[in-house]
Design goal:
The structure holds 2 protein chains of 2 kinds.
Chain A lengths: L1 H18 L1 H22 L2 H9 L1 H24 L2 H10 L2 H33 L7 H18 L5 H30 L3 H21 L34 H18 L1 H11 L1 H6 L4 H28 L10 H11 L4 H24 L6 H14 L1 H7 L21
Helix pairs in contact in A: 2-4, 2-16, 3-4, 4-6, 4-15, 5-6, 6-10, 6-13, 6-14, 6-15, 7-8, 7-9, 7-13, 7-14, 8-9, 8-13, 10-11, 10-15, 11-13, 14-15, 14-16, 16-17
Chain B lengths: L1 H11 L1 H27 L7 E5 L12 E4 H21 L6 H21 L3 E3 H27 L7 H18 L2 H25 L4 H24 L15 E3 L9 H5 L1 E3 H19 L1 H11 L1 H6 L4 H28 L10 H11 L4 H18 L11 H17 L21
Parallel strand pairs in B: 1-3
Antiparallel strand pairs in B: 1-2, 4-5
The chains are: A mainly alpha, B mainly alpha.
């Protein structure tokens, strides 16, 4: 009797799990990683040399190639556990820092992802597809760098927030233009933000050649930012971990609070879900669009500012990143929710950092991370693929895709 | 369809047309003022312009074009004033788009004359390079036209081109150049197929599907390229060769125009042929009408017995093939090898050219030429009298596209159902 009841409970649990979107997300990530490992194995020449000996020999080599890839990915992103233990036993602080550096370096990589992912996620919530995060990151980096080397004689607790604010301002202005164009003329933000990307790249090139160029340099580079504008580092070298990570978490909290706890956030989300309903409820759709896109750009700008103030300390031409396009995957993976975005950013940050060691150790080019991200993006965006592969059950309520209004304005 | 559109514009946009007429008229006057105040007033006395009309390394000769700058600029500004006055008083009606193009051309010409006065500039060379630079943009735009006319947004032109460029290099090196071309087109078609499956079958947002292809293609080509063809021992996989220049026998001898248009490799001629072919197919055949109706009003098309899903698949596959063809240009028509990220955003400019060209093939080529001209000009800025940063010339295509999209000077006619997945109503 009890046996059967228990079984029922388990069955219900499994049934629910199979229908849940959490399962899809998890399987999307796992599938993406597996396919990536497979790609690394398939493109290893040794596998084919071994195949000539015997089939199983080839499979063995392929598996070991996959193993090396994942192992170096893990070691590169989290650190080598045995090395960390040995370092703690030796008690030498520099050795300890070296051993735990990969973990903190992953967090450093995560930080701009959080900002950029939040930027796109916020846009999605307002029904806007901000595809121009890359350009906004650039502009935010430029304005933050400018503020960082221009205002001298300020204490850290004023100069640092001010520079970060300038970064947000730069990105915000850059996306305000597409916002106002969308609100006033209906020009679709996907095209306008994309165009603004290229304008930003060229603008940065020009800024670095003339107004912002460090006169002591031959190549286009801005001057170094002042010490008072630098993000405070929490450890000595070689760990680059800085307070930017916590500021990013704070921003994630603020975005959550804005979206889900304030009237403005409610209006923004309503506009995102159904602009017509919002309009008939007396909400200002046009101002929601402008505010939404500007805030989105401001967050992206903070990603650029974070890189300048926390890692690079100066603006160099072509300093980016690809964060702008990755951020779309982040927002989708995180279901456009701040907590989800933070988790997705952690995943991508650890992946990207680990991939650098993987490139050295397993001789797998770092670009494999882009492939992984693209695959995860596709699986998340089309849950039906994952549901078909793993024969998961259909969800009871239809899974809401990304509700970005149609191409056409009005 | 066409008559319905016409009726809609004449009935609905009567009052708006008036506003537009005045805006455009004022714009013409602004052009005149810019030429007078910005260019003529700044000009030192007695400068002359020399436009060289024969590209270097051409055997036909055409005399140089020499004129005094100040007089020419005054005449141009005068023409713009007259155009503005006529536009304000009566309006050019259906010719106004043509007139906007003319005014833009005059403005660019005045700028060039002003900036190069006192020296000489090789106009024929500039235009020759323009035609070459327009090729990937126009072909990319045609890919967009094919997809979007059927109602599927294609922002993945860049990724499709990049993938095709890579595949064509490898296969071109393994077999011959035609094998490379074919493989490139197939690679583009495959990318189109993925786009079609994701956006038509799984109905995921078409922009997300396009982004997926862009990220995936960038990652995959860079991955394979740094794993293999950039490495010692695999270099033979990165030598596909290039299509030779074919000088069209009689036409090439035409002075001035000949060397500009008829002394290229096959991609330039293919561009002209595809533009003509696609214009004919889209607007003069039943096939084209069906394709466009699926993009404008899929439900109505379905009611009339057109298979919406099938038509969209076909359009996206063809669009992919076109992007694939455009991608092979980079390797087989331009450089002769593959470099990481070698498309460098051309796919996105192609998309812009499609919008600027109002979603039709001929307009796309016009926009491609215009953007190609800016591109060509930005490489020659160092020889000008006036220092103009090349970055600002480079921005022009993007800004122009945004202005067109915002409808400041006339609204683009986007396919009505562009970007919306089609769902058959089930009872």
């Amino acid at each position: 009797m009890t046996q059967e009841k228990k079984k029922n409970g388990l069955a219900i649990f499994l049934d629910e799990l199979s229908r849940s979107s959490f399962m899809v997300t998890l399987l999307a990530i796992v599938t993406g990683l597996l396919l990536g490992g497979l790609l690394a194995a398939v493109t290893t020449i040794d596998v084919y040399t071994a195949m000539k000996v015997s089939f199983w020999e080839g499979i063995k080599v392929a598996l070991s190639a996959m193993g090396t890839t994942f192992y170096s990915l893990f070691i590169g992103s989290v650190g080598n556990p045995s090395e960390i233990i040995a370092a703690y036993q030796s008690g030498d602080s520099l050795t300890i820092r070296r051993a735990i550096a990969p973990f903190f370096e992953s967090l450093v990589q995560t930080t701009p992802y959080i900002y950029a992912g939040l930027a796109v996620a916020l846009g999605f919530r307002v029904g806007l597809f901000n595809i121009g995060a890359e350009g906004q990151i650039f502009m935010g980096a430029a304005t933050a760098a400018w503020a960082g080397y221009t205002f001298s004689g300020l204490p850290v607790y004023i100069h640092l927030p001010l520079s970060l604010f300038f970064g947000a301002l730069g990105g915000g202005i850059w996306s305000f233009i597409p916002g106002i164009l969308k609100a006033k003329t209906g020009a679709h933000e996907v095209i306008t933000t994309m165009m603004m990307n290229y304008v930003a790249f060229l603008m940065i090139d020009w800024l670095l050649r003339y107004p912002m160029k460090d006169p002591n340099e031959y190549t286009p580079k801005s001057p170094w930012i002042l010490d008072s504008a630098k993000m405070i580092r929490l450890f000595d070298t070689p760990i680059r971990f800085h307070i930017g990570f916590f500021i990013a978490l704070l921003m994630a909290f603020l975005v959550w609070w804005l979206l889900f706890k304030t009237t403005l956030g409610f209006e923004l989300r309503t506009v995102g879900l159904n602009p017509n309903a919002a309009k008939y409820a007396g909400m200002k759709v046009t101002s929601a669009i402008v505010i939404g896109l500007s805030l989105s750009g401001a967050l992206a700008g903070m990603a650029g500012a974070n890189e300048i103030l926390g890692v690079n300390y100066r603006l160099v031409s072509g300093f980016s990143s690809g964060y702008g396009f990755d951020s779309i995957a982040l927002a989708l993976l995180g279901k456009s929710h701040p907590i989800g975005v933070v988790l997705a950013s952690l995943l991508f940050g650890f992946l990207r950092n680990g991939a650098r060691l993987m490139q050295v150790r397993a001789d797998v080019p770092i670009d494999i991370v882009s492939i992984l991200q693209a695959l995860i993006l596709a699986f998340i965006a089309a849950p039906a693929i994952i549901r078909t592969i793993y024969r998961l059950k259909e969800p009871k309520v239809e899974e809401a895709g990304i509700s970005v209004g149609s191409w056409r304005s009005e | 369809m066409a008559t319905a559109d016409l009726a809609k514009t004449t009935i609905l946009s009567k009052p708006k047309n008036n506003v537009r007429r005045i805006v455009v008229g004022v714009l013409f006057l602004v052009v005149a003022v810019v030429i007078w105040l910005g260019f003529v007033r700044e000009l030192p006395d007695g400068l002359i312009n020399t436009y060289v009309m024969t590209p270097s390394a051409s055997d036909s000769y055409f005399p140089n074009w020499v004129f005094p700058t100040e007089i020419a600029l005054n005449i141009i500004a005068g023409i713009c004033t007259i155009m503005g006055a006529y536009q304000l008083a009566r309006g050019f009606g259906r010719f106004s788009n043509l007139m906007i193009g003319l005014a833009a051309g005059l403005l660019i010409f005045s700028f060039l004359s002003w900036a190069s006065s006192g020296g000489s500039i090789n106009l024929a060379g500039l235009l020759r390079v323009m035609v070459v630079r327009a090729v990937p943009l126009t072909l990319g735009a045609l890919s967009g036209v094919l997809c979007e006319r059927a109602g599927v947004v294609n922002i993945a032109i860049e990724g499709m081109m990049l993938m095709s460029a890579f595949v064509s290099t490898v296969f071109g090196s393994l077999t011959n150049i035609w094998g490379g071309l074919l493989a490139g087109i197939l690679a583009g078609t495959l990318m189109g197929y993925i786009h079609a499956i994701l956006s038509i079958k799984y109905k995921i947002n078409q922009i997300i599907s396009g982004t997926f292809i862009n990220i995936f293609a960038t990652g995959m080509t860079s991955f394979l390229s740094s794993r293999f063809i950039q490495k010692v021992g695999y270099q033979h996989l990165n030598e596909p060769g290039m299509f030779p220049v074919i000088q069209i026998p009689v036409l090439y001898k035409i002075p001035f125009i000949g060397p500009i248009l008829f002394g290229h490799n096959m991609y330039v001629y293919a561009m002209f042929i595809f533009v003509a072919l696609l214009t004919f197919l889209l607007y003069k055949t039943r096939w084209g009408l069906r394709l466009r109706s699926v993009g404008e009003h899929p439900r109505a098309a379905d009611t009339l017995g057109i298979n919406v899903i099938k038509t969209r698949y076909m359009a996206v596959l063809l669009g992919g093939a076109m992007a694939g063809f455009a991608g092979t240009y980079f390797t087989l028509g331009s450089v002769g090898r593959f470099d990481e990220m070698m498309t460098a955003g051309r796919g996105f400019i192609g998309l812009a050219a499609m919008i600027f060209g109002n979603w039709n093939p001929l307009g796309s080529m016009g926009a491609g030429m215009l953007f190609g001209f800016f591109d060509s000009l930005s490489t020659k800025l160092s020889i000008l009298r006036v220092a103009v940063p090349y970055e600002f010339i480079g921005m022009a295509p993007y800004l122009a596209t945004m202005i067109v999209l915002a409808g400041v000077v006339g609204k683009g006619q986007m396919p009505a159902a562009d970007g919306t997945p089609y769902e058959k109503e089930s009872l």
